[in-house]
């Protein structure tokens, strides 16, 4: 690889073609001011440069060649080079024609947006870089209609789950495919099932691989929504695709750019806690209990702000340096970045070091185009457990009369706050962060190599290969005195090494032919993909030396190891034909055949077609001056989805109790497993008015996913197995997307533009296997009896969806009255799982405002959600411990509304409950007879200032005096600055599990998760 790169750059340096120099200036047609950043390209070649901050440029070109001037937001201009021409002036009008706008689509193919029969929304890379987020995916929230990003917490390195439109698969991954420079890359979150402990994906988090991408290297992001837009990617693109194009170097004088960012973060939203009553039970003080059902604290008792005193102000530091340049047919770009984030939780943090290089050159008079990229990334993440074993819950429940910073006895041992055993004792949060250690170290190399050969003008053949290698090493250390480990274990150490290798290659033949007004394009191609993952884990207990973090420090007989190996291969063959008539009517048809190694023949080969139509009706209505652009589009496509490796046959499991050997595992054979089948269609329109001052895009989509692969469904033990995978069930997703772009004010000195991104949609269950009463994702069973479930839609009007919350309810009679125990006066519980909530919001709305006044720029992104239910597991946790703020009236007698379960509950005159209860003397009122349905908060809304940034570019006339700087900008920015919500908890945008869980995941489960911190940062960008 390094030899190839060296050769590529030597070729770049050696390429040179004689031509005359052409220089000039590019100005705005409206105000005559110079326009910086305009792309200047000699048509049909790789010669390119950009205009400087004062709008000037210099490029070499031959007589008769055309120079193309282009910039987003401006109409493209062309200039034909005459003999000995030198200083020229180009005027560009504001407002690019929709007929000329180009976007990057599937397989990295550039297409005119007017020809697309599906929805594709783009975001410029600079918009994502300027918000300074650790994970570039988080910056997309609010900027794309129908895109939802759900972070798993507020700690550095937290992963993010991203869904385009709506989730449709019960158990499979519903996240989109990520493609960088035409090559799919790995975004697979580590699955804790590969560990010896085989833990669910909820107590530890892992960095999303896509976070390795440096936002400052991104040129643009194009979001292809639905199979009709991403059909050429096969089953990998069944959930849509996010196509990322990185920055290319431009020919011309070398350019150096440096930028930095210094930020401060604070967590400012916490669940409310009562601090009136102390430890005890039934009104009696006792330190034997963790619960707070004792008497009131005496007047004047010192109370500590343990939560406020524990968290620290986090710091965020980022440095970026890039160098780009080239000559004639060659270009290159090299970039380096350093990120150092220290979390609001002491000892946590993330450090990332990245180096990237990209180069391109043309040979044989432009007939051969070579390009390649290499990125090296190292990420170190220091983290803490979350959820049930996390420090956040322990901090919430720590007694207010005890100083949480005092966590050790005088002899250095862990200080206890109860007199009972580990069943009621729990770790001091300071003990957790200083004694229990968890970390990851990830080294990654990814990139691509491509060559395009164009023997004649109408034909080209492209080959592209991608590689993505990574090695992750993780350590999980639990101190012998920690309550996380059972007393007999005396400490736990678990290490893992996870090696991943993703290779893919694509061959694409493109032929074009123009006959009169008809332009035809045919593409034929094939793709290969191989994904290998090899995880090795070792676990030991009973530490010999309490603080020594080494697996050799565990007792030899307790050591266990586990290797999880996975290989998946696929090959695809595809064809696409496009017929473009007179630039206003375009028909595109496609077909793809995928063959996968994870299914048995003949089910391992599946074919799906696609077609889309674009009709630019504004080309027929040119007399309507106020209509700049109008298009109708329709797209439909099929897709499939296979199963992860090794899910069709029962595996052999090592036996730990029989002196080695193997036995069949819990999961039965599924040799007839078929791929999921997806059928999707969308209709929409795109309209622009009043010289592009008003733009509107509308899309309706419908997607049906049948033959669902239901993984790990429970069986009767009589089968000899516990679980099985099989096909069954159908889901249907539909929704509306709208993007409204408005420029209310536009003058020489001031401009204001607003983009609205609206989405409303949901997924409902159409069919469900009759013998399965409920299908649930076990990893989401976090606390109490609430979990993510899918139910059959048997009863009319039930409208069960993919985002259902299932849990226990109060027992009721046929009239809906709560049943009360005649002996205790407390409500009875229906201990069966029923639908108790739905996490799907009514709609989401993102608003991006941009203001410019001379050299000042202000951008503000708002994130709005209406509706959707949240499981407040933190509230239930505090309720059981007597710390909920609604429990301060516990000394007041009350009667639970309902009827007695005395045999008369179904009669016309049931016995109304009159039994009085005083919770202060009967803690069962809070601890025993509650139903989880009471902790589902309904119709949660939020209004969030997602991002804000104010920047000032130093005027060019000032910079000219320095004779060194071409660009200087200083700025101040903020993320998650403000949240207004009717949710009683800290932050409703929560996820109780990691993206490693299938289906919809843990969106809407709030249990032991830290809210998103507020970050304020400042920095500068300098160009030389």
Describe this protein's structure.
By secondary structure, the protein is mainly beta. 6% of the residues lie in helices and 47% in strands. The protein is built from nine helices and 55 strands. The strands form 13 sheets. It has a 22-stranded antiparallel β-barrel. A five-stranded mixed β-sheet has the order 10-15-16-13-14. A hairpin with a 2-residue loop joins strand 20 (314-327) and strand 21 (330-342). The protein is globular. The model is unreliable at 1-18 (pLDDT under 50).
Care to give the gist of this entry?
This protein is mainly β and 1024 residues long. Helices cover 6% and strands 47% of the residues. The model is unreliable at 1-18 (pLDDT under 50).
Topology diagram in text:
Layout: H1 2-14, E1 20-28, E2 39-42, E3 48-50, E4 56-61, E5 66-70, E6 77-80, E7 87-92, E8 102-104, E9 110-112, E10 120-124, H2 125-129, E11 147-151, E12 160-164, E13 177-180, E14 183-184, E15 218-224, H3 227-230, E16 241-246, E17 252-266, E18 280-281, E19 284-285, H4 306-310, E20 314-327, E21 330-342, E22 349-363, E23 368-383, H5 391-396, H6 429-435, E24 437-456, E25 459-478, E26 492-515, E27 518-541, E28 560-581, E29 585-596, E30 605-615, E31 627-641, E32 652-654, E33 662-664, E34 676-689, E35 694-706, E36 709-714, E37 723-727, E38 730-746, E39 750-767, E40 775-776, E41 786-790, E42 804-810, E43 819-820, E44 829-838, E45 843-853, E46 856-866, E47 870-872, H7 873-880, E48 894-895, E49 899-900, E50 916-917, H8 924-927, E51 936-937, E52 942-953, H9 956-960, E53 967-981, E54 1005-1006, E55 1014-1023
Parallel strand pairs: 1-7, 13-16, 43-49, 47-54
Antiparallel strand pairs: 1-4, 2-3, 2-5, 5-6, 8-9, 10-15, 11-12, 13-14, 15-16, 17-20, 17-55, 18-19, 20-21, 21-22, 22-23, 23-24, 24-25, 25-26, 26-27, 27-28, 28-29, 29-30, 30-31, 31-34, 32-33, 34-35, 35-38, 36-37, 38-39, 39-45, 40-41, 41-42, 42-44, 45-46, 46-52, 47-51, 48-50, 52-53, 53-55
